[in-house]
Structure formats: C-alpha cells, structure tokens
Design brief:
The chain has 568 residues and is of the alpha+beta class. It has helices at 2-14, 19-92, 95-99, 101-114, 149-157, 197-205, 281-284, 286-375, 382-409, 422-439, 459-476, 508-513, 530-540, and strands at residues 118-125, 130-134, 159-161, 165-166, 172-181, 187-195, 213-218, 249-254, 260-267, 273-280, 417-420, 443-448, 455-458, 482-489, 494-501, 544-550, 554-562. Strands 1, 2, 3, 4, 5 and 6 form a 6-stranded antiparallel beta sheet that branches. Strands 12-14-15-17-16 form a 5-stranded mixed beta sheet, covered by helices on one side. Helix 2 (19-92) packs antiparallel against helix 8 (286-375), helix 9 (382-409) runs parallel beside helix 13 (530-540) and helix 11 (459-476) packs antiparallel against helix 13 (530-540). Bound molecules: adenosine-5'-diphosphate and magnesium ion. Residues 468, 471-472, 526, 530 line the site of magnesium ion (MG). Magnesium ion binds at residues 468, 471-472, 526, 530.
Length: 568
C-alpha cells in the first residue's frame, strides 16, 4: 500500500510549482481519500442491504410455508373424513340394502347429519348404471356413467375425488366416489357429491388479512375456489404454477399482473389440486421500502458529506502547500538577491579602496602643480593651467565622493543610533531640495502624522535614504510635478514613511533591477548606487523597503521601520 501510495502521489511532487500539478495532486488526494473512506462504507451498506433483504424474505417465507402446510392438512382431513364416511357406508351395507331407495335415503339423512357438506348419494353398479339415488336430483336414477372418466378412475384406484364442477344447482361441487367389492366378488360404486362451501371456510380460517390471497387450483390451472387476485372458481389461472409437491414450499415469481409475488403451494393428497397462498412482495415490503428510502437518503447524504469534507480538507492542504512553496521560493530569491548585493558590495569596496590611493596621489600631484604654478606667476599659461588643475581637483573630489558612497554601501561607515524624530529628518532633507523644486515648479506636499513616535535610528543613514529616494522622485517628475511625503504609525511595532511621485514610473524590467548596484537608466547622470545603498541601509536598520510603480503614472516608495531596534 505504501509503495502504491507513493507512486500514486509521487509524479505530482516532482514538478510541484506549476498550478496544473497542484490540480493533479488535489484530484489524486481527493480520489484516494474518497476511495479509502467510501469503499468500506459502500461494501458495508451493500452487505447490510443484502443481509436485511434475505432476512426479510426468510421472515415472510417461513410463516407462509407453515400456514399453507396447516391449511393443506385441514383440507386433507376434511376430504379423508368424507371419503371414509362414504367408504364405510359402501362396506357396511350390502348391495341390496343400498339399492333400496328408501333405505339409501335414510342412510343419507344420517350421513348429512354427521358430516356437513354432502349434497347427494348414489349407488352405481359395475356396469356404470345408477341403481338408487338420495338427493335433490331424482332424475339421475338410471343414468349410465360407464363412459365417464371418473368411473374408470374409481374402478382402477378404489377411491376418487373429482375436480370442482358446477352442479345442477349452479354452485361448485366435488364428487367423492368409492368402489367396494363384496366377498362374493360383486362390486359397486358409491358416489357422493359435496358442495365446496367448506373449502372456502377452511381458507377463511387461514386468517389471510386484507391483502392475502389463498385458493385451490387444479393441476391444469383451473381455480377450484374463488381467488381475490386471479378470478372466480373455475376460471383459468393465467400464469403457470411453479413446480409443486406434497410438502409446502415458497417461491418468488412474477404473476400475470406484473407483480412479484411470494407463492406458497402444496398438493393435497388423493386429489388433483393444490393449495396456493399468494403474498404480493411490494405490499409486504412496504415498510421496508420506506426504511430503505430513509437509509438511502442517509447514505447519500453521508457520502456527500464525506466527499465535501475530503474536498475541503484537501483544498486547504493544497493551499497551504502552495503558500509554503511560494514562501520558500520567495526566500530563495531574497537570499540570491542579498548574496548578489553583498558580493558586488565587497567588490565595490575593494575597488573603492584601491582607487582611493591613486586618487590621493592625483590630488597631491595636482596640488603640487598648483604650488609650482603659484611660484612662477609670470608663466603665460598659468591661468589656463590653474583652470585645468581646478578641473582635475573637482573630478577627484567627485570620484572621492563616489568611492565614499561605495564604501558606505559595503557597510564600512560607522553607525550611530539615537532616538530621533523621523518627521524632522524628513523636513530637514526636504530643505536640501526645496530650491531645485521651486525652480522646476515641483510641488512638495507633506502629510505627516503629528503623533509619530520617535524611533532609534542613525541620523546620517536615514537622511541618506530619504535623500536618495527624493532625488529619484525629483528626477522622475516633469516640471510642475507633484511629490507627496507621508508618515504614519502602521501598528505598535512599525512606522511607515512613503514618498510618492507622479513621474515617469518604471517598466517591469527597471523594477526588477533597480536595487542592483550600478543599475541606472539615467546614463551619465546616474550612478545606479542610490537604491542599492538605500536598500542596504533600510535592511541594516531592521526595516523593509517596498516600491510600487506604474509606467507613466508614478512611483511610491514605502519605508517601514521598527519602533524598537532588534538586536543582531
Ligand atoms: P540612479 O538614480 O543613479 O539611476 P538609483 O539606484 O537611485 O540610481 O535608481 C536606479 C533606477 O531606478 C533609476 O535609474 C531609475 O530608472 C529607477 N528609479 C528609481 N526611483 C525612481 C522613481 N521615483 N521614478 C522612476 N524611476 C525610478
Ligand atoms: Mg538615484
């Protein structure tokens, strides 16, 4: 897992700084976290769902099976009792006794009293002719049954229970027929008819409830009792009955109405029909379906929440990562910059030092030349020479100034920290430039915070900072331009000073290089040292220098200085 995880995230880490790779990393982390948290949840929910479903099914099927088993037993008992009664009469009386119509009627009376459901009773001899009859249809006497199927069946099997049929009275009947063979070898058949009201009673006793349905059906699909769902008695069931045997069993099938049903069925012994109990699955599962909908809602909400949380956390993580990468990159750039400054500074200091000696010699020699010239005033070139010497000395002074500043840039100047009023230094520095500003019609505005705290700093250095920045501003503005000086207390640790001009502004290229020593856009007029020296001083005083500039609109240089000097 560890290996795959690292390979999974690894390639994204190699090119960390492009925004696309953060996207890829975010997508990968979200996917991984989602998989890790959702997979167990999903499989758990799946297993739970399946288990619950099968438990529910078992819970429905078991009582259904038991119910059908019990009802089947009642049917068998009912029919067995009736068959035994007929069988008993067939064997208890002789053929002659039974063929006496009055006698048969009397026996039938007793039989009806003891057993409910009998409609009539008839004696049929071995040729299939009805000899005597007790019941409502006297015209049946003499009728010949030898061609009928049931007669062959009873000859063959001994007892026979027919399918349900409509009798003369137009209600459903069942025939029970019993063959008896006397000791003398004579055989006859006793045939009784039962109405099926008692079947309905047994089914009603099953206690099916409002939406249950139970019925008897023959093997060839003819309803033997009324069904709530599939029609009246003697209608044909319009879907095939699943395989059924004598033991009750439950199956799940699709019925003709398109519903999924639990169908419990069992064959009734010694008959051609089966008892069927039907329960419609959606009705039984109704409560489960509502619970399932609730569970699904909770599940989906849970998944959504997990996803959201994962996404939020990952986003947060990526943002942090991005920030820290940017910070690291910034720090590296800053370090490179200071490194560059300090090496150039050292170089400059070396050069300045080396140049100082020849400069001193040039100065000395120029002084000597002037002295010699003073000794011989009659020389015709003396005036010209004096001017040249003066020019040499002026240039040497200028060079000295530059080397002095270069040494300052390289931290060779002494620092003297005092508690000073920055506003006062600003105004004092401004004094140096007032004349030029007036001459060029440049407005110098000040918005200085009156309650600006005095801070520990070096007078000379801070003045140089202000002067450098003001000089640049003055150089940048056209005649009639504006320069605004502000000071304020940024917070309880920092004071801010800004110098804003509406001059030429800087290109991106200039902005990038302005702090580099000797970088100037002013050709001969500039030294390119001002900003690099300023940057070095502000840093040394524990401050911060910020420049905002837009080409042709102006520049604002902001200096942030600490109210308390930090040691080191
Ligand atoms: P110098 O002034 O001698 O050129 P600096 O180090 O003071 O050197 O400035 C470097 C460069 O930065 C300048 O040449 C100029 O292009 C740019 N610069 C500095 N300040 C400003 C400003 N206020 N407006 C426009 N450009 C500026
Ligand atoms: Mg300058």
């Amino acid at each position: 897992m560890k290996k795959t995880l690292s390979t999974f995230l690894g390639d994204a880490r190699t090119e960390i700084s492009s925004p696309v790779c953060y996207q890829v990393l975010r997508r990968k982390i979200v996917a991984l976290m989602a998989i890790v948290s959702l997979l167990p949840l999903l499989s758990l929910a799946g297993i739970n769902y399946y288990e619950h479903q099968s438990a529910m099914t078992a819970e429905i099927q078991a009582p259904l099976r038991a119910l059908v088993g019990k009802a089947k037993h009642s049917f068998e008992l009912f029919l067995a009792e009736r068959t035994s009664a007929v069988s008993f009469i067939a064997s208890a009386y002789s053929f002659d006794e039974l063929s006496d119509g009055a006698n048969l009627k009397r026996i039938f009376q007793v039989m009806r009293r003891e057993f409910t459901g009998f409609v009539d009773l008839g004696l049929i001899d071995s040729t299939g002719r009805q000899i005597s009859y007790a019941g409502p249809y006297n015209e049946l006497i003499g009728r010949n049954y030898s061609e009928q199927e049931w007669f062959h069946q009873v000859q063959f099997k001994g007892t026979y229970v027919s399918d349900v049929f409509m009798g003369f009275r137009k209600f459903p009947h069942v025939v029970i027929a019993v063959r008896h063979t006397s000791e003398s070898g004579k055989s006859w058949v006793l045939r009784a008819t039962l109405d099926t009201m008692h079947f309905d009673r047994i089914i009603a006793a099953m206690g099916l409830g409002a939406d249950g349905d139970a019925f008897l059906v023959s093997r060839n699909g003819i309803l033997q009792t009324d069904s709530r769902r599939y029609g009246q008695v003697l209608d044909t069931l319009d879907f095939p009955l699943p395989p059924t045997n004598f033991e009750a069993n439950v199956q799940t099938i699709q019925d003709s109405q398109g519903d999924t049903i639990f169908i419990a069925s069992a064959l009734i012994t010694d008959t051609e029909f089966a008892l069927v109990d039907v329960k419609v699955k959606p009705t039984v599962f109704n409560t489960w379906y509502t619970v399932r909908a609730d569970l699904l809602f909770i599940f989906v909400t849970g998944v959504a929440l997990i996803f959201l949380a994962v996404y939020r956390v990952t986003s947060l993580l990526i943002v942090r990562l991005q920030e820290s990468d940017a910070q690291r990159l910034g720090a590296i750039h800053q370090m490179e910059h200071s490194q560059k400054l300090s090496s150039i500074g050292r170089l400059a200091a070396g050069v300045a030092h080396e140049i100082n000696n020849p400069l001193a010699i040039i100065n000395e020699k120029a002084g000597l030349m002037r002295d010699i010239l003073n000794l011989q005033p009659e020389c015709s070139f003396s005036d010209k020479f004096a001017k040249q010497i003066e020019a040499i000395q002026r240039s040497v002074d200028r060079c000295r100034g530059i080397t002095h500043r270069m040494l300052g840039f390289a931290k060779r100047m002494d620092v003297k920290i005092e508690i000073l009023d920055l506003n006062a230094i600003l105004l004092e520095t401004l004094g140096f430039l007032e004349r030029e500003a007036q001459y060029r019609n440049v407005t110098l505005e000040t918005e200085l915070a009156q309650d600006l705290p005095r801070i520990p700093t070096d007078h000379g250095q801070i003045q140089q900072v202000f002067l450098n920045i003001l000089n640049n501003a003055l150089a940048a503005v056209p005649d009639g331009g504006h320069i605004v000086l502000r000071s304020w207390s940024e917070n309880d640790q920092i004071v801010g000073i800004s110098i804003a001009d509406d001059g030429c502004g800087m290109s991106e290229e200039t902005c990038k290089h302005m702090f580099e020593p000797f970088y100037t856009t002013k050709k001969e007029k500039g030294t390119g040292l001002g900003m690099s020296i300023t940057y070095g001083i502000v840093k040394r005083l524990g401050g911060e220098l910020q420049v905002q500039s837009k080409l042709n609109e102006g520049t604002t240089v902001t200096i942030l200085l600490p109210k308390k000097l930090v040691e080191g």
